[in-house]
Structures are given as structure tokens and as C-alpha cells.
Design goal:
By secondary structure, the protein is mainly α. It has one domain. The chain has 5 helices and no strands. The chain is flat and about 45 Å long. The two termini are 23 Å apart.
Length: 105
Amino acid sequence: MHYLWWIPCVAVYYSIYAWMSKKNNDLGGSWEWMWKTYVFGALCPFWVLVTCVTKNIVLDAIIYDILMVASGIITMWFMGAADNFTIINWIGVVMTIAGLILIQT
């Protein structure tokens, strides 16, 4: 189980990425935060690292995608950005999570 180190790392990484995206949006899309968010997103390709240590690439890919979506949504929810989600946004969240679960079956 020592190869599962990437799970908390991915959750933390995408939470920081969601915070940076919200910060960029709150500042009206400032160039400074746009570049910070872009560089942060481009410099840490976690999926490349996961593929090097995986024992089951299909299962790990599904776990990675679910973590990516869930950590982003949960972070936005904690920051209050999800308060502005409309019913269409929540339907999209549910459909995305359902699709990721259905891929596994």
C-alpha cells in the first residue's frame, strides 16, 4: 500500500488549485493570478507520477478523477462559491460523479 501516497497529494493539490481559481475569479481575472494558476496547474503533473507507481491503472485513473472532481467541489463549497451554484450546476456535478462511477462498472 506504499504506492497510495499520491491520494492525499492529489486532494491537496486540487484544493489549492480550486482556491487559486476562485482567487483569480474574485479579482476579476487579473493577469497576475491567471499566470500563477496556470503555472501551478502546469508544473505538477500528478497523473504522470501516478502512472509510474500504479498497480491497477484503470482503478487508479478512476480514483484520480473522482478525487480531482470531489476536492475541487468540496473546496469551492467550503469557500462559499457553491452557494451561487444553480440547479444546472448541481445536475452537472451529479452527472459527472455518476459518469465516473459508471465507467468503473
